[in-house]
Amino acid sequence: MNNNTKQRLYFFLVTVVTILVIGKFVYESLKKNSVYFFSPTDLKNIIEIPNGLIRVGGMIKEKSLKKNGNKYSFIVTDFRNEIIVNYTGIKPNLFVEGQGAVIEGILNTRNNLLASKILAKHDENYMPKEVADALKKSGDWKKNYGK
Description:
This protein has helices at 3-33, 40-45, 129-138; strands at 36-38, 53-60, 66-68, 71-77, 82-88, 100-109, 112-119.
């Protein structure tokens, strides 16, 4: 091998290794920051309870919201299954019973979510796309939800 060929081979190997290292960092970063969405029925039917941050979406069950200081307990339902949510913090103004919401947190047990964030940034007629899709998939979508 002449000197020119060795230089090209060395440059090629350094480039490939650099791309692989950068790719690995990007992959790990995306994996660490990904948050999966589930409905209460999805959580009931999965075999392995997910570790880490997840999002659960559905409707806030009527008469399930309980407040104790800045601690809240409520039930999220997709009209087939329910999950109990415990949240400590400031409740968004638009977060009310009978409305759709997405709650982010860590699953304590299959039926209990320790919430870190309530996503309810909408007016009273809006429903998050993930919640609407889950309700349509389960067959519990009602036409007045989308108005």
